[in-house]
Amino acid sequence: MPIDFRQVTKTYDDGTAAVQKFSLHIPSHTATVLLGSSGCGKTTLLRMVNRMVDPTSGSVLIDDEDVARAAPVALRRRIGYVMQNAGLLPHRKVIDNIATVPRLNGVSRGAAKRRAYELMEIVGLDYTLALKYPGQLSGGQQQRVGVARALAADPNILLMDEPFGAVDPLVRIELQRELKRIQTELRKTIIFVTHDVDEALTLGDQIVVLKKGAEVAQVGTPQEIVENPADQFVAQFLGLDSQRRTLSARPRAGGGWFISDARGKPLGVVDQAPSDQAPIDRAPETD
Ligand SMILES: Nc1ncnc2c1ncn2[C@@H]1O[C@H](COP(=O)(O)OP(=O)(O)OP(=O)(O)O)[C@@H](O)[C@H]1O
């Protein structure tokens, strides 16, 4: 289901102009990442899709239908939403958290549980966690439950608001990898909010770099943005102007290679040795 923002503006009651005349087409079955600094309006944009926030002017369309005409509760039940702190119900077991929306949609208890177990498998959660409470899980496991819950009603659209922001870097990379795998299989229309450049480059089919007021600085594929940043703002935000965005690889004891960035920040593990085992450039020199 494609999503279109048309000249959308949001001014909050206190006068904050969070979003000003924002327009964007989000194609079906792809992942679009909204990338920008804190306060630039990313969450506001995301929440306008499921009517947790209504625009002051302009419209948001899903499949050419203005969401303003949809009943908010029904709309939210057919759109998956994952937030930073998973947003799980603390007094309900993992399995019941995942089954919440199907149950609200009238699916029988048995069928909802079966579906919840299927989803645990899809997101890589061990079944033994099903009867635990969210507080008994690690941050990464909680986020997996959050993703499973968002997928439970088989929505076409998945909204993800900094879903991996609160977990440690290695778990974050693992969750990103899982999400990529899930997306290859399920092909949802995803809008993913982050301020992390590497995360955006890893997950986005389309990246939207935003300035304050949700002003679009650039829209493009990861490659287009890295190779041809629209201006100094984008280059700076991506860290392309100060140094070459260099990745380095070193062999890993158990096989495979660790990849890290120029500052030594680990990015992930790959199976194949990089061709010359030397630093890999992700972008051309900009100076
Ligand atoms: N309910 C609200 N009332 C008033 N101002 C708000 C409200 N929600 C957000 N804002 C303001 O709107 C602007 C955009 O906020 P928003 O949360 O959309 O940004 P963001 O890019 O998602 O930021 P972050 O990454 O910090 O979550 C900010 O200046 C914020 O303070």
Automatic annotation (TrEMBL):
InterPro entries assigned: AAA+_ATPase, ABC_osmolyte_uptake_ATP-bind, ABC_transporter-like_ATP-bd, ABC_transporter-like_CS, P-loop_NTPase
GO MF terms held by the record: ATP binding
UniProt signal peptide: none
Annotated ABC transporter domain residues: 3-238
Any one Pfam family match given in the protein's UniProt record, by short name: ABC_tran
Keywords, sorted A to Z: ATP-binding, Nucleotide-binding
Positions of region (Disordered): 266-287
Transmembrane segments: none
Residue runs in coiled coils: none
Name of the protein this chain belongs to: ATP-binding cassette domain-containing protein
Organism encoding this protein: Nesterenkonia rhizosphaerae
